[in-house]
Amino acid sequence: SARTQAETTPTTSTTGSTERTLLNKSSKLENSEETREKSSSLLKMYSTRYLELNDILSSLVLSYQRLGRGQQSFFSKSAIHIYYDLLIEKTQKLMEIIKNCIRDKQKCSA
Question: For 1-110, where are the alpha helices, taking DSSP H only?
Answer without folding.
Answer: 2-8, 13-68, 74-103
